Fold:
Amino acid sequence: MKLTPEQLQDKWNEVIELITDTFDGERKDNILKMYEFFKDRMMFTPASGVVYYHNAFPGGYVCHILNVTKFALRLYELYEELGLHTSEYNKENIIFCTLHHDLGKVGNLEYDYYIPNESEWHRINQGKMYGYDENLHYMTVTDRSVWLLSQFDIKMSEIEYLALRLTDGMYEEANKGYFMGYGENKNLKTNLPYLLHNADSLATRWEKEQYMFSSDSDIKYEEIFNTELKVEREREEAEAVENMKQALVKDETPDILSEKSKDLFNELFGDMIRELLKQMMK
Structure:
């Protein structure tokens, strides 16, 4: 996926509007200061470094936090409808956590977290679009998120800290003690961490599906669920190859081929291979 400059700006404006409408007082002022500080970097930060993970493109981070916010607010309504306990948190608490759970992916005050992968081979063959800046001290994304918030004197409640801290669920080894606490006194006393983890998981899955079911994916997922599509594609490819053979046998140029056949021919063989095939067919 690739965002236009106009789309990047629109997404950024959406984040700033969300902050302005949700928070007030000193907390809002400090959050806005932080976003102004990171604006030129945050707008172009990806949400991951590998194309088949999620949102591994410039602007992917901003899109991700907006998506997590959307899912979280819908889940908040569902939690209330289903009778789950929600009285100890509100929409401001939710939005604070959704906007900042991955803040550490921006980097620190000096260096980016993600840097473009200079290896064309790894980008093309392994989908590794970004690497990590080795100038950064090692921290988990969550730990760096909390540290960055502290650098701008952005305060959070105890429940907000728990939710932000546990958004990655048990994908983060250190979180297991929170989710698998044996003994009543070790149980999480608020559902906000569950809501944040659910929202992050669903938003990430939705983002991943945008790649999975696109033409960029190496795996044809649509054909896995609809075998007729695979049969149709294989028929068209076989027909295109047969047209190529006929053109070569008749020593004709590929002008007689359909546009789809020409495209496939050039993609598979190229000029050099085509010449070799002509010789082999004589």
